[in-house]
Design goal:
- The structure holds two protein chains of two kinds.
- Chain A has two domains: 4-200, HUPs (Rossmann fold, 3-Layer(aba) Sandwich); 221-338, Rossmann fold.
- Chain A contains eight helices and 18 strands.
- Chain A has helices at 17-33, 50-53, 74-88, 101-112, 232-245, 253-257, 288-292, 323-338, and strands spanning 4-8, 10-11, 14-15, 37-43, 60-65, 92-96, 116-117, 122-130, 135-147, 152-157, 164-168, 185-188, 203-209, 221-225, 248-251, 278-282, 299-304, 317-320.
- Chain A has a seven-stranded parallel β-sheet, with helices on both faces.
- In chain A, strand 8 (122-130) and strand 9 form a beta hairpin.
- Chain B is of the alpha/beta class.
- In chain B, helix 2 links the parallel strand 4 and strand 5.
- In chain B, 47% of the residues are buried.
- The chains are: A alpha/beta, B alpha/beta.
Chain lengths: 339, 291
């Protein structure tokens, strides 16, 4: 059986969070399909990288180690992945929906004429019958994602082309090590057989990577604001509440677009996914893309002037009222009750 | 540097903020006719970058290439009002149902038809799909290098470009030689607004199809003013393998579409009264959700 394959992103010798999550998902898909899980690490100075990758249940790890392969540039990584896919013919290939995966994925799919679905929120195995062509397909990858402004949820399949490719954002899948001592094989690729000198046409002049200052993903309490918060000043109230409760401030896309919050705070399909113990949605209507990033929160409080805001349907507590009135009261009564 | 030939890939998109009941057809594809149509926002950011290169490099031409139904000519006119020199509408029923790969194939074959191209600029992604795939897929089909997530494009001597990229965890500046495909993100500067003189000059710019629907015959006017004719390309004008077009050229298929219906669960309804907020905070503290 052809394998499930994961492209691992590596920054500073560390396998990216999103890649670890995909390795976990890839392992469970491979279990279901009774096939191998394979992965590739492309970069420079990769000795020992397998210690971070094999424990996720990887049967074969390919490495392409060369000074020129780090930091990431499009062309050499594309050449390696395309040629390797032609050799090992995986049935499924997963990449992070990151600035690397979204640069590399479409390039590879275009070269191989294989279908790619971006930003999937769920991946499951299922069958398909094409009634017109009278063909039955078993064990396809259902690639599920919101589309069209979040008004629909689409299930996409690639019946005939391989690999079936999908990208997934960080935080959407859960990360779980299979076995610290998992026995997998490491195969070092002869890089020069996969790349040519012309592949290195892009020169990186400068790179400023900043560790994300905010850590919404790890926060137990998330206070998220939407367009309904109304102003940047009102957003400061959310920061106050977050400071008091020991949480982080998140935002909907509409609030980020309106300039109330930085992009790194965006929660939802095109932002981060959070699963806090408590999610307080302030002035958020609750479009499906936003809900995709928070609906697994343990408890949800919605504060909204509109009693029929869609988010109220998934909330545990609904406060109908103005954020600017309710949030200061929450701060006040929290302080009173914890004295 | 010699003037560059720049193509801006743009898309007219349904305004996904205003989606009604009849937005989807039975086969799961989008019923574009039922929705207000706009210039895809990030394609406007891309147009601005192209126009800045044109400002910096004399002799540069900026051409908008869009694939879509007849009314997509609207965004070509919009682009011309803002500074583009002209546009090409790629339109044919054979393209219906294309996924990103089939779209990229058609666009890249059309680009080949437009002569030597130095730079192709496109928005990172379109708001109706948010896939960010067409730019890189076109680049691969044309055998060109690509720079994605661009925030600033600067033309340099020696036929090179310097591009500042906005990544999720930082900023990267790269340099590479033309020809090239660049996709531009929404954090790049907004597109300049319409120019009044250009609006006067181009407001009657039309495709042949649009002209044929006119009640009066203005042919002589369009003969005298060639800039008023928006070029149209159909499948018969470009070299294509029909198997790679439309639904049959699309490896991805839509298996199922579900409209989003929220399932209500029992929520506690509270008012803004002090007692309500007080008891809520007590409850959360007691259940160790907070505190």
């Amino acid at each position: 059986m052809n394998s499930v394959f994961v492209y691992c992103e590596i920054e500073d010798g560390v396998v990216a969070e999103v890649s670890q999550e995909l390795l976990t998902k890839g392992r469970s898909l491979a279990d279901e399909l009774k096939c191998d899980l394979e992965a590739i690490a492309i970069g420079s100075g990769l000795e020992g990288i397998e210690k971070q990758i094999l424990p996720f249940g990887v049967d074969t790890l390919y490495t392409a180690d060369d000074k020129r392969l780090y930091p990431y540039t499009t062309q050499p990584h594309t050449s390696i992945v395309v040629k390797l896919f032609q050799e090992v013919k995986p049935q499924i290939a997963l990449m992070g929906a990151s600035s690397i995966g979204r640069d590399l994925g479409p390039r590879v799919s275009s070269a191989l004429h294989s279908g790619l679905t971006a930003d999937c929120t769920s991946l499951i195995i299922g069958d398909h019958e094409d009634k017109k062509a009278k063909k039955k397909y078993e064990n396809l990858l259902y690639q599920i994602r919101p589309a069209f402004g979040g008004n629909i949820i689409a299930t996409i399949i690639n019946p005939d082309c391989r690999p079936q490719m999908a990208t997934v954002r960080e935080g959407v899948m859960k990360k779980e090590v299979r076995d610290e001592n998992y026995k997998g094989e490491v195969k070092a690729l002869d890089v020069n057989k996969y790349v040519s000198d012309e592949d290195f046409a892009v020169e990186i002049i400068e790179r400023h990577l900043e560790k994300s200052k905010v850590n919404i993903k790890g926060a137990q309490v998330v206070i998220a604001g939407g367009y309904g918060v109304g102003s940047k000043e009102n957003f400061d109230l959310l920061h106050e509440l977050a400071a008091v409760l020991g949480g982080e401030v998140g935002a909907s896309r509409a609030a980020v677009d309106a300039g109330y919050a930085d992009h790194e705070r965006q929660i939802g399909q095109t932002g981060v996914t959070v699963r806090p113990k408590l999610y307080i949605a302030c002035g958020i209507s609750g479009q499906v893309q936003h809900r995709a990033g928070m609906e697994e929160s343990a408890q949800i409080i919605s504060i909204n002037t509109d009693p029929n805001a869609p988010i109220n349907a998934i909330a545990d507590y609904v406060i109908t009222g103005d954020v600017a009135e309710v949030v200061p009261k929450m701060i006040k009564f929290y302080k009173q009750n914890t004295k | 540097m010699k003037g560059l030939n720049i193509i801006v890939l743009a898309k007219q998109v349904p305004d996904t903020r205003n989606v009604g009941k009849d937005a989807m057809k039975a086969d799961g594809t989008v019923n574009r006719a039922a929705l207000p149509a706009i210039f895809n926002p990030e394609d406007l950011n891309a147009l601005e970058q192209a126009l800045r290169v044109k400002d910096a490099v004399p002799g540069t031409t900026v051409t908008i290439l869009t694939m879509g139904p007849g009314r997509a000519a609207e965004i070509i006119r919009e682009g011309m009002y803002r500074g583009a020199d002209g546009g090409v509408l790629l339109t044919d029923r054979a393209f219906a149902g294309s996924d990103t790969l089939a779209t990229s194939y058609a666009l890249s074959q059309a680009v080949k038809e437009l002569g030597k191209v130095d730079l192709i600029v496109a928005g990172r992604q379109a708001i109706d799909g948010d896939t960010a795939q067409v730019g890189p897929q076109v680049a691969e089909k044309l055998g060109l290098n690509q720079i994605t997530y661009a925030e600033e494009i600067v033309a340099e001597k020696g036929n090179k470009l310097k591009v500042v990229r906005r990544l999720e965890n930082g900023v990267e500046t790269v340099r590479t030689k033309l020809p090239l495909v660049v996709t531009v993100t929404g954090s790049a500067p907004d597109c300049r607004s319409r120019n009044a003189k250009r609006l006067m000059k181009f407001k009657h710019a039309k495709t042949l199809n649009e002209l044929q629907n006119e009640t009066q015959d203005y042919t002589h006017l369009y003969d005298e003013r060639p800039w008023l004719t928006i070029k149209e390309l159909t499948v018969s004008d470009i070299e294509v393998d029909h198997e790679q077009l439309g639904l049959s050229g699309s490896p991805t298929k839509v298996k199922k579409i579900e409209n989003v219906v929220l399932q209500a669960k029992e929520a506690k309804k509270l008012s803004t009264a002090d007692e309500d907020i007080d008891s809520l905070m007590k409850e959360l503290i007691e259940s160790h959700v907070i505190g």
